[in-house]
Amino acid sequence: GEVCNMINKKYNEFLPSMQSAEELVAQVDGLSSNIDVLRTDIENKVQRDLNVAVAEFTELKQQLERDTLVLSVLKKLQEFDRAIKEHKTALREKKYIAAAQQLEKARSSLRNLESRKGFELKILRALGTELTVQTQNMLCHLGEEWQKLIVWQLPPSKGESSLEAVLHSELHLHTVPSKEEEVAGPPVVSVLQALAVLGELHTRLKVFGQFLLKYILKPLISYPSLQPLTEERPDMFILRFKSEEPTLDQSSPMEVFDKIKLIFEALHKYLLNVPLEQPGEDRKDGRVTLAELLGELIWEELSNCLVQNCLVNSIPTNSSKLEQYTEVIKSTEEFEKALKNMQFLKGDTTDLLKYARNVNSHFASKKCQDVIAAARNLMTSEIHNTVKITPDSCVALPQLPHPGSGDHLKMQKPSNLLHNGTVNLESETKLSQYTFSLPSCRISSSVEQLMELVYQTLLEATVSTDQCCVQLFYSVRRIFQLFYEVVPTYHKESLQKFPQLAAIHHNNCMYLAHHLLTLGHQFRYCTTNILSNEAASFVDLVPAFRRLGMECFKAQMRVQKEEILERLSSARNFSNMDDEENFRAANKAIRQVLHQLKRLGQVWQDVFPVNVYCKAMGTLLNTALAEIVTRIVALEDISAEDADRLYSLCRIMVEEGPQVFTPLPEEDKNKKYQEEVPIYVQKWMTFKELMIILQANLQEIVDQWADGKGPLAAEFSAAEVKSLIRALFQNTERRAAALAKIK
User: Fold this and answer.
1) Which part of the chain is the Centromere/kinetochore protein zw10 N-terminal domain (predicted)?
2) 434: pLDDT confidence band, cut at 50, 70 and 90?
3) What is the pTM assigned to this prediction?
4) Angle at 59 between CA 53 and CA 62, to 5 degrees
5) Which tops the pLDDT comparison, 331 or 3?
C-alpha cells in the first residue's frame, strides 16, 4: 500500500498537466470541419483550371496530409488519456481485470503513437513514464493480493529442504470462497486474470511451482516417512506434513503416486481449477486453466524426479522379479490418468509412463551401466603400466562354439575366423597365420583388460534376450566411443609431456583398431539373429582409432623436432668455427641433440614396434642433419680451419647418430638397425657428400659432380655446390674453371 501511495505521489508531481479530454474533443471537431472546407476547395479548384493549380494543389494536399496526421495523433492521445482514467477508476473499485485491460489499451495507443515516423512528441516520453508508473502500481496491488491468497510458512532455515525443514513447512490457501463472495465472483479469478492480462502470471506461477517442488513434491518422493495432512477451515485450506517410521528405505512407486495425487487433488480443488483467458497464446479458444499452466512449468522436473528417485530404484536386478513389475506399470497409468482429469497433464503417454513400461530395457541398461562404469575406470587408470604383446599373444578369450561342428574356435586362427566371416579366400594357405597379427610392442595393461571386458560383454550378449543383446552390443560400441573421447582429454598433459606415454597411447590405439577389425566376425555365429547381419561389426571405427594413435604420435614428433631445431639454433649458424667460443657453442648444440635422441631411443625402446621405432628415430635424426646442411650451405665464407672444424662436428653426427637406434633391449640385436640407418634417414647421403666437400680440393669436387651425373649431383643442386666452392676457395682462375664445370 505504502509503495503504491508513494508511486502515485511521485506521478502527480512529475506528469506535466495534460489538456483535458473536452478540449481535445473540441479541437478534433474544429479540425474535422477544417478538413471538409479544404476538401471542397481542392475539388473546385481542380475542376476550374488544372494546369495553373498544380503547385497550389500540391501544397493543399500536403496541408491535408499534415492535418489528417495531427488529427489521428490527437485521437490516439485522447484514447490513451481515457484508458488511463478508466484504469484508475477500475483499480479503486478493485475491478482488477477491467483495470488491467485499460492499461493494455493505453499501451497499444502509445505503441501506435511511437511507431509514427517523423512525428516526435516530447509528450510521448511523459506518457511512457506515466504508463510504467501505473503498471507498477497495479502490479503492487496484485502482488499484495497474491500474497494474501497463497501463504507459505517456512522454517527460518537457509532455504534447505531437509526432512526437518519440510516437517515445519506449511502452505495456506486463502482461496476458499466465503458465502457472500460466491455471488460477486471470487477474487481469485480476477487477481489471476489481471496478472495474465499484464503478462505477469507466468512469473508468479513459476515461483510458486518451484516452491511447490522444493518444499512439498520432491520431499514426498525423497523421504518415505513423510505423510501429507490436509485441513479445511471456513476461510482457508492448510497443507502440512507428519513423519511416520517407514517400513522400507525406499517407498514403492505406488505409495509415492498416491501421496502426490492427494496434493494435486487438494490444489485442484482450492486453486488450480481456475479458467483464464490467455492473450496471444496459440490455444484453440484462448482459454486455459491454471492447472494446465502450472503443469507446463513443473511437470518435466517432477516426472524426472519421480523417475530418478522412485522408478529407477524399483527396476529389478534379476530377471525373476521382472514378472511382478506389471503392478508398477498399472499404478503409473492410473496416476497419469488422474492428473490428466485435473488438466494438469496434456497429451498422451508421458516420459514417466514410457519409463515404467520400458522395464526390460532398463533391466538391460543397469547391466550396461556397470559395463560402461568398469570401462571408464580402466580408461582413467595410468597409461604407463604396460604389458608386452607379441604376434602370438591373444586376449584371454572364453571359447566360442564353432558354427559348423562341435569344434572350438580359438583366437589363434584368425584366417579361419575371417574365412568363416565375409572374406572369401580362394584357399586358406594364401594367408599366413600372422596376416592379422600385431607386431611386438608394449600396450597399457588397462587396455588389455578393456579388451577382455569387451569380449566378456559380447559373450554375455550372445546368451541374453534379444533386447538385452542389442543393448549390450551397443554398450560395447559405446566403450570404444568413450575411449576415443575420454582418453585423449583425460591424459592430455601426460601425452604431450612424456614421449614414452605418447608411444604407448599410439600402440593402444593400434591394438584396439586391430581388434575392431575382427571383433564382429568372431561373434557372428553365436549371437541371436538380431546381430548376425552386417550391423554387428565394428570395422567402421577402425580408421578413427588409427587416426587417434597417429595424431598423438605426430604431435609428439612435432615437439621433438622443435626441440632439436631450438638446440641447433644456439650453434651460431656454424659460422667462424675458428673462433673458440663459436666452436664450443656449435659442439655443445650437437652434443645436446645427440643426447636428446639417445634419451628418446631409450624411452621408446621395446615400446614401439621396431619399424615404427626406426621411422620415428630416423625422421628426427634427419631433421638434425637437414638443419646442419642448410646452415653450412648458407655460409658465405669458410676458412680452412673452419672447414676442418665443421668436418669434425659432422663426423660426430655420422659416428654417434646411428648409435641412438636401439629398438630392442638386447644390445647385439640392434647392430642390424644401426647399419640400416641410411634407409631411415633421408638426408644421410647428402650429409656424407657435404663432409666430402669440406675435405676435398677443387678437382675432387669437380670429379664428384661428374657433369651432373656424380654422387654429389644426386644430393645438391648446381647453385648449392657453386655457393660452397665460393665459400671454401679463394677467387683464382682454377676456381673459376671449376665453377664453370658445375652446371
Assistant:
1) 2-84
2) very low
3) 0.53
4) 135
5) 331
Same-domain check for residues 234 and 145 = no
The size of the chain, in residues, is 743
At 379-432, the pLDDT tens digits run 888 888 888 888 776 655 545 444 333 333 333 333 333 333 333 333 333 444
**Beta bridge mates, 288:** 276
Of residues 373 and 419, the one with the higher pLDDT is 373
Q: Spell out the SS3 assignment of 512-556.
A: HHHHHHHHHHHCCCCCCHHHCCHHHCCHHHHHHHHHHHHHHHHHH
Q: State the chain's mean pLDDT as an integer.
A: 81
Q: Report the alpha-carbon distance of residue 647 to residue 13 in Å, rounded.
A: 98
Same domain, 227 and 339: yes
- pLDDT exceeds cutoff 70 at 196: yes
CA–CA separation, 427 and 356 (whole Å): 54
Residues 68 and 133 in one domain: yes
Name residue, grid cell 496484485: 142
Q: Is residue 1 part of a domain?
A: no
Contact criterion met (CB below 8 Å) for 520 and 549 = no
Q: Does residue 395 or residue 734 have the better pLDDT?
A: 734
**Locus of grid cell 479541437:** 27
Pairing of strands 170-173, 150-153: antiparallel
d(CA 479, CA 739): 67
CA distance 157 to 165: 7
Statement to judge: residues 60 and 162 lie in one domain: no
Q: Are residues 107 and 162 in the same domain?
A: no
Strand 170-173 relative to strand 400-401, pairing = unpaired
Same domain membership, residue 167 and residue 145: no
CA distances from 612 to 69, 83, 556, 678, 711 (A): 85, 85, 14, 16, 29
Q: Are 363 and 326 in contact (CB under 8 A)?
A: no
Q: Which three cell numbers stand for residue 407?
A: 569344434
The percent of residues in the chain predicted with pLDDT above 90, rounded, is 28
* pLDDT one-digit tens code per residue, 282-329: 545 567 778 888 888 888 888 888 888 888 877 765 555 666 778 888
Please list, residue by residue across 623-661, b when 16 or more beta carbons sit within 10 angstroms of its beta carbon and e when fewer do: bbbbbbbebbbebeebeeebbebbbebbeebeeebbebb
Clarify whether residues 70 and 162 are in a common domain.
Answer: no
Same domain, 145 and 159: no
Per-residue pLDDT at 348 exceeds 80: no
Q: Do 62 and 115 meet the contact criterion of CB atoms below 8 Å apart? A: no
112: domain CATH number is: 1.20.58
Measured at the alpha carbon of residue 697, what is the angle toward residues 692 and 698, in degrees to the nearest 5?
A: 110
- Which alpha helices (H) appear in 607-710, and where do they start and end? 610-633, 640-656, 667-675, 677-680, 684-695, 698-705
Domain that holds residue 596: 552-741
Contacts of 706 (CB under 8 A, 6+ apart): 712, 713
Query: What's the rounded mean pLDDT across residues 658-666?
Result: 92
594 located within any domain: yes
What's the mean pLDDT in 177-195?
Answer: 63
Rg (CA), the chain: 44
Residue 591 within any structural domain of the chain: yes
**Beta-strand pair 441-444/386-389:** antiparallel
Residue 487 has pLDDT above 70, yes or no: yes
